[in-house]
Amino acid sequence: MTRRAARITAAATGFLAIALGAFGAHALRGMLEANQSRDLWNTAVLYHLVHAPVLLWAASAEPFLHGPILCWVLGILLFSGSLYAMALTKIGVLGAITPIGGLLLMAGWGIVGIRAIRKSS
User: Fold this and answer.
1) What is the distance between the alpha carbons of residues 28 and 44, in angstroms, rounded to a whole number?
2) What single DSSP character describes residue 27?
3) What is the pLDDT of residues 17-61, one digit of tens each?
4) How far apart are CA 121 and CA 118, in angstroms?
5) How far is CA 93 from CA 11, 19, 82, 87, in A?
6) pLDDT for res 121
7) Domain for residue 120, yes or no?
8) 61: helix, coil or strand?
9) How far apart (Å, rounded) are the C-alpha atoms in residues 32 and 25?
10) Does 34 fall in a domain?
11) Is 83 contained in some domain?
């Protein structure tokens, strides 16, 4: 992924997180309440939105952070994506995907931490 593609991905991620948050709060409110899945949706939006500025930071960092960006993008897709899908469909087996996304999100942070430790040594 190029720096430009990473910045575009970060912007799209932030835009989509805001849009999905608003969509869940308004257009999907009744469905989410009927499915008793509003908390799932809100958790998906939170993790999605938190990682949007992080992606933007990583896209601008020196050196360019390919590994963390890949982990965070895949983590958002799997973690937040599975929660969004479960909130809408009530298909509980999708919950098996969620921890994989969470591990990818943590891996991105782990890579950043390891690089910081190595750099300071």
Assistant:
1) 14
2) T
3) 999 999 999 999 999 999 999 999 999 999 999 999 999 999 999
4) 5
5) 31, 26, 10, 12
6) 67
7) no
8) coil
9) 9
10) yes
11) yes
